[in-house]
Structures are given as C-alpha cells and as structure tokens.
Amino acid sequence: xxxxYRTYRQxxxxxLARKRLTRDEVADIVQETYCRIQQSTDPQTIRHPxxxxxxxxxxxxxxxxxxxxxxxxxxxxxxxxLEIATEEPGPYRSIxxxxxxxxxxxxxxxxxxxxxxxxxxxxxxxxxxxxxxAELGLSVSMIEKHVSHAIAHMRKRLSATRPLRKAPLRVLx
Length: 173
What we know:
Elements: H1 2-17, H2 23-40, H3 49-69, H4 76-81, H5 91-110, H6 113-123, H7 129-136, H8 140-161
Helix pairs in contact: 1-2, 1-3, 2-3, 5-8, 6-8, 7-8
C-alpha cells in the first residue's frame, strides 16, 4: 500500500485538482481512496493499480457531489448538531391561528341556526349531505346551499380581518 501511495499520490492529486476541487476536498478524497482500497482489497492483486486508484477516487468524488446536490451530508459532526424542524408552529403562527379561530367562532354564531347546524354537522361531525338531510328533514340541495353559504361567510370574515397588503412602491421619474 505504501508503494502504491508513493508512486501515484502526486498524479492522483493533479487528476483531482483538475476537477475543480479545493485542496481540502482533494486531500479528503485521496485519503478516502487509499482507505477504501486498503479495507477492501489486497493491493498486490490489482492488475492496473493506477487505473483502479483513479476510478475509486473519481467514484468517491462523484458520490460526494451527489450527496451535496441532494442535501445529504454524512459528516457525523454535522448530523449531531443538526436542528430538527419541528411540526409545532412558531409563536407568530400560533397567535395568528388563535385569532383566526376567534374569528371563525364569531362568524359561526352570525350564521342562521339551521345553516350553522348543517355546517357543524358536515365539517365537524363529518356527516354526509344525505345523512344531514335525513336527520333535519331537508333536501340534499338545501344542505348544499347551507354549506356553501356558511363557507362563503367564513371566507368573507377571515379575509376582512387580514391586514391589507400595501401596494408596491412606484419609482417616480
């Protein structure tokens, strides 16, 4: 292995340097190449050591590039310090959600009683239109109208309370 290293080290460095890698990247790939060859194969059994060495090094380089392009990093230090994104909303989103929920509650109370009952049965109790129609003694088309009216009312209330976006600034000439 030592003879292989001394014989081809500089040529391998030049080969990798032409691939637009930093000195540190080249050093890492060279080291990884010799480590893999030493772990997997007896250097005496390699028929074309230079070609084999360059192929292993190039494969390591290509694999590293693929990992980078896919955002995969097998560096254990990076994995240990990685912050996992949480499913919990941030403080701003939590406050915003509470405000939207309060608006929905008020908007729900503003609906006529039958419309409110139909909406609650459909959206919160997960009953189908025919089930609601049978329970309330209404037609399915009437149930559809109540749900549509309730949704339109909710949208109207929610959009009315969202801050208006400012128009983009115009550059005066």
